[in-house]
Amino acid sequence: MNIPAAEIWSKLPLGREVELITFDNNGLAALAKPAGVLSHPNEPGEEKRSLLQAVYDLEGEFFHWKDARGEQRVWLLNRLDSATSGVILLCASMELAAVMRAHFKLKRIRKVYNAMVFGQPREKMQLWRDRLAIQKQGGQVRTYATGHIPAESRMSLVQSWGSLSLLRLEPVTGRSHQLRVQCAKRHLPIVGDATYGDFAQNRDFQRTMGNKRLFLHSLETTFDYEFQGQISHFSATAPLPVEFTSRR
Question: How far apart are CA 87 and CA 217, in angstroms?
Answer without folding.
Answer: 8
